[in-house]
Amino acid sequence: MQQNGEECREPNSSSSLDRDSFLDNYKGLAILFILCIHGEIVLFILVGPQLLDSLAGRIYVSFVSLLYLVAMPAFCFISGLLSPKSLQRKHVVRCIRYFGAYLFWHTLTVLAMAGAPSPGNSAFTIKFWSVDGVEWYLASLIIWRLLFLPVFSLLRWPITVSIVVAVFMMMTDTMLCSQASCTFGFFPFFMAGASFRGRLRDIRLETPGWAQGLILGGLTASVVLMVTLGREWIVFPRRLLGCIYGGETGAGIAEPDSIRAAMNATHPYVPPPATDFCATVPGVVEMAAFYPAVFALLAIFGALVSERRVMFVTRAGSNSLYIYLTHYTVLAPAVMLAAGAATEGWSSPAVPSTLATLCVVLCTWVLLSGEWIKCVCGPCVEPPVERCLLSDDRDIL
Fold it and tell me: Each residue of 297-324: pLDDT tens digit?
């Protein structure tokens, strides 16, 4: 897309020239929020069910609960914003590259999570669709850009229609597959970003310092209120995303038996919404209200993002896809160690565990934002598929 004569580059363009610091900062913070959410599992396992009995635990979990409402929606929104207005060969090639990366990372997830045949059964069934990792985003991105976007862009009210479709699909058997559920559930955020293509100034709110202070004060007050009201309110924002991830389907995927056993013993969440709940009148009403509320939070988030280069944040944004796909290679060992300790009955105090979790998350974010990650993992994240394709510069559509 074009803005003021300059191209808004893709999240992981190999060139560092003419990059938009606002977009990189937006992605850098969004990927940090995602790491905070995924790293939280270490804290839950270390401390155990008494986590929410401590003030430090309630504050941290309340803060991360708010991040749930912003992190992945923001990532999908910025992906829509950076989507091309017309499909050319280079854009389809990029989607093919995403597909190659998806196959690689999903194969690793299947191998890590599927496990061996059950006792007494010699068959080895590859659980390809019932196992899901972070790579679901790549598959969804391909579908959004190649199939959904060309159709929805022709509609008069594309965002509204995308919300209606997303809520409707929650009343179908789509909920039985978390990948399909996420593809439809997060699409309205992608469509909202695509609606702002060429109107980047509309999301760059030049917010004065006093207004940013008020916003931060309001967010802090929200955390304090959640901590005061107790457990049900602390975890309520997470339940709002439950139907998007497939309800019980989304909550039960991709954990090896050792982690699942530890989490069953220590997890302080309220149960995810039953899959059937998403098809009830209260579930439909809840989700119909969820999307406008998150759009408002994304506007607030955009008002806090700086247009200048910010240490670590801008660099993390330029490598956001690399961080997203590789961060579990750092977090997984920590989760495994914590799960092993939990199964042995060992637990840790809330305050040092919270500080340790924050340290692991921040160190992972900074470490993976370096340019070295492209040298090491480049073929796994951006596979060179061009050598397998015909040379042709014609437009696809």
Answer: 898 888 888 888 988 999 999 999 999 9
